[in-house]
Amino acid sequence: MEKDATKLDHLRRLLRVLLFIERHLDEELSLEQLSRVGSFSMYHFHRIFHGVIGETPGAYVRRLRLEQAAGQLVYSDVRITDVAFDASYETPSAFNKAFKKLMGCSPAQYRDRAPVNYKIEEGLVMQPTIHVLKDQSVFSVRKMGSYPKSAPEAWKSLGVFLSESGYTRSGRRYFGIYHDNPDITAEENIRSEACCTISGGEIESGEIVKRVIDGGRYATFKHEGPLEELDITFDRIFGNWYPGSGEKLASRPCLVELKEYPESGAEAYAGVVVHIPLES
Q1: What is the DSSP letter of 271?
Q2: What domains can be seen in the chain, in order of their start residue?
Q3: pLDDT, tens digit, 9 for 90 and up, residues 152-189
């Protein structure tokens, strides 16, 4: 029992570290700084991180930056040199070498044969509402793996937490956070979070952590159909709307908001919307 409690404590503290990394990915990050965020001894942090996450802190940060760079190559016409600098590489040659090692080809080749091959469907250009979302304080649980596997697992864990804590499910906003593009990120590294807004003095426990979903400008689209078909909505957004929108994507994850908790086995939910982060 004590072992399980220690493991959960490590997981919760490491998730705080992961969230910090993701919010400060374009900044210089040190082991000392990251160990403080998770309240770990700097002498043991590296081993604990690697043992639980499966990558060293440095390798994790480099991979996220390179995957973000891959997204820039696919969704923008930013010069490769600028993409390299955005990914915190001092020279294009160092960026090219690291990118090729992860993706199997050079940045130029990757852009030419981008894995996302959307087809524009006439008459299906979705029209969003552009609005500003305020910061949202939420409970969150994260699961790893393909979205059809990890997302239901995350929602189930959140539901169990609310029930066991005696917290009502009504009167909350529910957000699914989909961090990664499955065409870019390896399946085992895909990150999915289930979140709900916090009420009053509610406290976290187990694998659940408190976090803030960053506000800002978002393009909001209505999703029709079951959650399993979200990929169709995302394809239409990024294939049909985004190329001609004149907007630039912000470095925040996409959000899927539900008006109610997604009960297992339900086919579809009313009022599901997709929030796409935009630069100001």
Answers
A1: T
A2: 2-112 (1.10.10.60), 129-277 (3.20.80.10)
A3: 999 999 999 999 999 999 999 999 999 998 889 999 99
pLDDT tens by residue, 213-262: 999 999 999 998 887 888 888 888 988 888 888 898 888 899 999 988 88
- pLDDT for the residue numbered 264: 62
Q: How many residues does the chain have?
A: 280
Quote the Cα angle for 80-277-195, to 5°: 125
Percentage helix, strand, coil for the chain under 3-state DSSP, each rounded to 5: 45, 20, 40
Residue 209, beta-bridge partner list: 140
> The sheet that has 174-178: what strands, in order across it?
129-133, 216-222, 273-277, 254-258, 174-178, 191-197, 136-144, 209-213
pTM: 0.85
CA distance 166 to 189: 32
Q: Which residues contact 148 (CB under 8 A, 6 or more apart)?
A: 228
